[in-house]
Amino acid sequence: MAPRVGDEVSNKQVVLRDYVTGYPKESDMFLTTGTIKLKVPQGSDAVLVKNIYLSCDPLMQFFMRKAVGLTGYNRYTPGCPIFGYGVAKVLDSGNPEFKAGDLVWGTTGWEEYSLITKTESLIKIQHTDVPLSYYTGILGMPGMTSYAGFYEVGAPKKGEYVFVSAASGAVGQLIGQFAKLEGCYVVGSAGSKEKVDLLKNKLGFDEAFNYKEEHDLNAALKRYFPEGIDVYFEHVGGEMLDAVLLNMRQFGRIAVCGMISQYNLDEPQGIKNLMHIGFKWIHMQGYTHRNYYHLYPKFLDTVLPFIREKKLVYVEDVAEGLENGPAALVGLFSGRNFGKQVVAVAQE
User: Fold this and answer.
1) Which of the listed residues 104, 287, 311, 332 has the most CB atoms within 10 Å of its CB?
2) Hey, what CATH topology would domain 141-290 get?
């Protein structure tokens, strides 16, 4: 029998062991089982949810460090469950914006059930004719990141030359497809033959290459962009950014969303070719999804028809069970995932 509101039930949780330096390891987290009463405390405006899907995102590694280094974000607390974006079903609510039975996405705990007190991060799911797991990715934070980066920051035009690094990831795969829908020439880089095949044969990129097999990234980019790059969507940093700067066209744009190659280096790599920003009048802008939440309705109006008409392909890598969550999260940093990494906690 399914648990009912008011019942006290067991609650599996993924807990941070201690603050992390360098890349997180599975051993930095452990699985434990506590208990939770399926009832919002009287007088509270919190929401009690059953978690269905959890999102694995590169950003989460920063929350495991003693000093986050990111404005406006909270770090994890050792001995407590980690948190991130997820999809959940409301079981009980003290908040008039949500009622039992609602499906939501937003920040939740890595556990079976969560009492969410900061409900401002929750968005009610209105469209259930698409997979619920999509709200951890294409219709959630990575989707908003892709939409903002493409339409608001990089803004490629028909016929322009677009390069996307980490192109098979949750954000890169969408940006490349948006660019193709706008009539751009699109090339992506990824870290394996299988991911390159995915980009070219399933996601519709014009070309793709495995950066691990390229001894000279400058030469590789000249091969795929003999006339140069108009817009670069930056997710990697380091040597890739240095090579891109050499190959940008005049008035090019670089939209900076992440630099995953630099996150865990003791000394981040220096960029030698920054002078090209001045020589070529390049516009380089950083962004995150957090600046663009006001566009979420417009984003849905754009992306939902693409999904329904099968104009967008979205690839997910789903790990089954909360107990497999730490391995799935850690796998992001070695490129083990194939598409958007999701943890399935419960049946929809």
Assistant:
1) 104
2) Rossmann fold (3.40.50)
Which own/partner pairs from 237-243 qualify as long-range (CB within 8 Å, at least 24 positions apart)? 237/261, 237/262, 237/268, 237/269, 238/262, 238/268, 238/269, 239/269, 240/165, 240/189, 240/211, 241/271, 242/217, 242/269, 242/271, 242/272, 242/273, 243/217, 243/218
Query: Token pair of 179, please?
Result: 């660019």
Q: Judge contact between 96 and 88, C-beta under 8 A.
A: no
> Is 80 exceeded by the pLDDT of residue 89?
yes
Residues 59 and 14 sit within 8 Å (Cβ to Cβ): no
Q: To which CATH superfamily is domain 7-137+315-344 assigned? A: Medium-chain alcohol dehydrogenases, catalytic domain (3.90.180.10)
C-alpha 187 chain-centroid distance: 20
Copy the structure tokens of residue 99.
Answer: 């009622």
Over the stretch 140-170, which tens digit does the pLDDT of each residue have? 999 999 999 999 999 999 999 999 999 999 9
Taking a C-beta distance cutoff of 8 angstroms, is the pair 242, 271 a contact? Answer: yes
Q: How many CA atoms lie within 13 A of 316 on its CB side?
A: 21
User: CA 314 to CA 298: how far, in whole Å?
Assistant: 20
| pLDDT band with cut points at 50, 70 and 90 for residue 92 | very high
3-state DSSP assignment of residue 124 = strand
Answer for the pair 235, 258: CB distance below 8 angstroms, yes or no. Answer: yes
Could you count the other beta carbons within 10 Å of the beta carbon of residue 202? 13
CB 163 within 8 A of CB 223: no
Phi and psi (nearest 5°) for 166?
50, 50
- For residue 104, the cross-strand partners are 88, 124
